[in-house]
Specification:
This protein has 15 helices and eight strands. By secondary structure, the chain is α/β, with parallel strands linked by helices. The chain is globular, with a radius of gyration of 19 Å.
Length: 326
């Protein structure tokens, strides 16, 4: 039996912790919100972030980060990308030297352009780090709907360990060695999901959606290859699979944010009205800056940057994309 700790009790962190507990692992879920800790321990629910699901009774919540990790053999990080480094640094002194670290956060650090596994490796050096990504809405994982995701690590044994920890009749985990491709696929698809939502909010149809998803995949692959990823990775679960899910699924937070922006709500108002993080907005800044630094053409990312951060009207951004040089 593994002693696992999940850092971050949002919807995805809660679903992953529940999956580990259901697989028989002694699992602790760290949450910064006292009400979330209390409800999970008393009622086996997290109505604030994952309403409607009864969690495994063996799952325990903890509000003290050091207490949550000091005996863990596996630690799963699911904190939002913009606070991941700070969260990791805050518990570093208590993390066991031999702990296996799993990163389920999707994003690119804005200041350094670091991938999330790189952030964890820098803050908690000397340990094996595995990326966990793929098409997976938390609510459907919690409902035990058939789901397939990817565990990626340059050390095959570490990826296989994570595969065995999470796999069940409802959750199938594949292994991969292309960490860069898997992480970038998981991060960049959120930008494309916001963009797809904008199209839907504008009242546009299926043709533009198909064009955006397909050309979005081309942009994701282009940047991924420039950073050392493998093209084939972007045709797999962590690339195309996650892209299609997040761009078309009604449960997608990123797509929903885009819909509201496309309907004319100010960006700041849309973001302020949400407790949960839409990673695609944060990642748009990182991806745009990274593409500029590497000289990679990403017109959809650039258009989204103009809409989200430069005040461009969404309909104008669509027109400019269609009028680019042939």
């Amino acid at each position: 039996m593994t002693r696992a700790t999940v850092i971050g009790a949002g919807a995805w962190g809660t679903a992953l912790a529940d999956a580990l507990a259901r697989n028989g692992h002694a699992t602790t879920l760290w949450a910064r919100e006292p009400d979330v800790v209390a409800e999970i321990n008393a009622d086996h629910r997290n109505t604030r972030f994952l309403a409607g699901f009864e969690l495994d009774p063996a799952l325990r919540a903890e509000g003290d980060g050091h207490a949550a990790v000091h005996e863990a053999t596996t630690i799963v990080f699911v904190a939002p990308s913009h606070v991941l480094r700070a969260v990791a640094r805050s518990i570093a002194a208590a993390v066991p030297a031999d702990a296996l670290l799993v990163v389920a956060t999707k994003g690119i650090e804005r200041e350094s352009f670091a991938l999330m596994t790189d952030v964890i490796a820098e803050e908690l050096p000397g340990r094996r780090v595995v990326a966990l990504s793929g098409p997976s809405f938390a609510a459907e994982v919690a409902a035990r709907q058939p789901t397939a995701i990817v565990a990626a690590c340059t050390h095959g044994d570490a990826a296989r360990t994570v595969q065995e920890l999470f796999s069940s009749d409802a959750l199938r985990v594949y292994t991969q060695h292309d960490v860069v491709g898997v992480e970038l696929g998981g991060a960049l698809k959120n930008v494309m999901a916001v963009a797809t939502g904008v199209l839907d909010g504008l009242g546009l149809g299926f043709n533009p959606r198909a064009a955006l998803i397909t050309r979005g995949l081309a942009e994701m692959t282009r940047l991924g290859v420039a950073l050392g990823g493998e093209p084939a990775t972007f045709a797999g679960l962590a690339g195309l699979g996650d892209l299609v899910l997040t761009c078309t699924g009604s449960l997608s937070r990123n797509r929903t944010v885009g819909v509201e922006i496309g309907q004319g709500r100010p960006v700041a108002e849309v973001l302020a009205s949400r407790e949960t993080v839409a990673e695609g907005v944060v990642t748009t800044q990182s991806a745009w800056a990274l593409a500029q630094a590497r000289g990679v053409a990403m017109p959809i990312v650039e258009a989204m940057h103009r809409v989200l951060f430069e005040g461009m009207a969404p309909r104008v951004a669509v027109q400019e994309l269609m009028q680019r040089a042939l």
